[in-house]
Amino acid sequence: MEASEDQIYVIIFATIFLGGIMSTFVISMVFIHRQRQAQNRQKMDQIKSEHEKTLLNIENEIQQETLTYIGRELHDNIGQLLSLAKLNFGSIKPEKQSEGKEILSQAIQEVRGLSKQLNLDWVETLSINEFVAQQLARIQNTGFCETSLEADFELLDLPKDQKLVLIRVIQESLNNAIKHASPETIQIRIHESGNVKRILIKDDGRGFDASQDSQGSGMFNLRKRMETIGGQFELSSAIGKGTEITLTLPN
Amino acid sequence: MDSKLLQAFSDWFTISTNLLLIIGVVFFIKLPKGKRANIQYWLPFLILTFTVFYENFGAYTNYNYDLKKAVNAYLGNTEYPKFNLWLFNIARRQVGVILYLLLIKTWLPPSKKKYINWMIIVFISMACALQFSGIEPLYYNQPIIFALGANLILIGSGLYFIGMITQDQFLESNPLRLVSFWQMTVIMFTFSLNYISSVALLYLFAVNPVLGSSLQQFSSFMWICTLGVLTVTIASPLIPKVFEKEPFYKSYGP
Questions:
Q1: Which residues does B contribute to its contact with A (CB < 8 Å)?
Q2: DSSP B138
Q3: Which residues of B touch A12 (CB under 8 A)?
Q4: Do B161 and A29 touch (CB under 8 A)?
Q5: Which of A50, A241, B119, B237 is at 20 to 30 A from A179, Cα to Cα?
Q6: Where are the transmembrane segments (chain B) (predicted)?
Q7: Which of B181, B158, B171, B219 is nearest to A25 (CA)?
Q8: How far is residue B78's CA from residue B69's CA, in Å, rounded to a whole number?
Q9: pLDDT tens-place string over residues A149-172
Q10: Cβ–Cβ below 8 Å for A18 and B193
């Protein structure tokens, strides 16, 4: 074989080799891209299923909380009203009979009000402001501590999943304040700075050292839940100085 | 009509490029005004027009020997008056490289666009330095400038492919239905195979003219493929069922 023939083969093979390398490169890029797409799809499915699971848990917890409240109401309020009505109907005096009727209709109204809370339809009709006001009124009525609500705007038109999470996080934050902080006052402020909407839950209770991670999974769960709807959960507290929770709503 | 003139323009490559330009012009006129103002459509059209212009001019120089001789003499080349390399050096290997780099830039994520700017600056500086110093005169083969240009195009295409596998914007896209993907693939193949062919061409024509001619035909075929993809790019908004929206598409009105 002559030298020039060798060189021609080198040129041919070099061209084929270069073409092969580039083809392999492009095909590998497409293959890697497809793999990444599949991984991303899997990740998105996982996030979606986690989100659905969180929402289901929240719905269960809200229902559990509602049932506890209804049980308490049946025992402390409606039960008392019915006993009183029974006593009045046992009397032969006509005024006692009519008083008994009034008490009975009051009991019926209370039962109607409670029955509405048995399913989660109330979540859709109630605004966050109304829910917060109701919760604070309940706390205030027990005489546990003073409460106040300050709102710069009405939180309407939130998607149901966001509303459920917010309701549960607010409920849990208030429960924590009542159970652990023994505050004199609980304040809730709904405000907006720029385009960012925030809910501030503040108590003047005993507080705790927020730098120590001793809050178990409670705070972690609240933070995680806010993140599932694209919001944020921030907590600041110090011993003897109360606790401040800021819920940043998703845009 | 002069038969020599007809002969100069009647090879398959010149006819194909002219046909592609006609199709490109039709599609470009049909594009909505907003799309025509978008660099992702007018730049391919500009490259197509520019390429067809210099290819036709190249064909004309083969007909008009006096013009070729006069330009060569003006550039200082009296040894090879038949060469029209000056035209292809300046149009395809210098301006063409810059235009293709700009085209690659339009498909890159914003964070990677600055690399292309630097590549263009380096390429212009090196090309000027090599030509003005006399190392690679304009009228003769310019392997260094072409190697530099081809490598920059390869790096640019590589940046696009890296972006494709790392940027989240590409996750929703099927690359096989993106015009940018086909552009980058064809540009990468054309420039690298053309580089090999241009380096080996003078030697092959001397030793094995048949193989040299085949390699040149293959190179011409790759240029046609590139121009074909550019024409398809211009037509792509009119066939949305075939092509997907580009991840880094910029809207310029309706």
A1: 161, 164-165, 170-171, 175-176, 185, 188-189, 192-193, 196-197, 200, 203-204, 207-208, 211, 215
A2: T
A3: 211
A4: yes
A5: A50
A6: 12-29, 41-63, 115-132, 144-165, 186-206, 218-239
A7: B158
A8: 8
A9: 998 888 777 888 888 888 889 988
A10: yes
3-state secondary structure of B158: helix
| Strands A196-203, A243-248: pairing kind | antiparallel
State the DSSP string of B75-106.
TT--S-TT--HHHHHHIIIIIHHHHHHHHHHH
Domains of chain A: 1-119 (no CATH), 120-251 (3.30.565.10)
Token couple for B94: 């210098």
| Of A125, A81, A128, residue with least CA distance to A103 | A81
Provide the 8-state DSSP code for A199. Answer: E
Exposure b/e, A37-70, CB count within 10 A at least 16 = b: beeeeeeeeeeeeeeeebbeebbeebeebbeeeb
Partners of A196 in the β-ladder? A193
Task: Classify burial at B72, counting beta carbons within 10 Å of its beta carbon; exposed 0-12, middle 13-18, buried 19 or more.
Answer: buried
Residue type, A218: G
Q: Is A4 on the interface with B (CB under 8 A)?
A: yes
Q: How much is the ipTM here?
A: 0.82
Radius of gyration of chain B (CA): 19
Q: Show me where the domains of chain B are located.
A: 35-238
- Mean pLDDT is highest, among A29-33, A172-176, B213-217, for A29-33
Closest residue on chain A to B188 (Cα)? A22
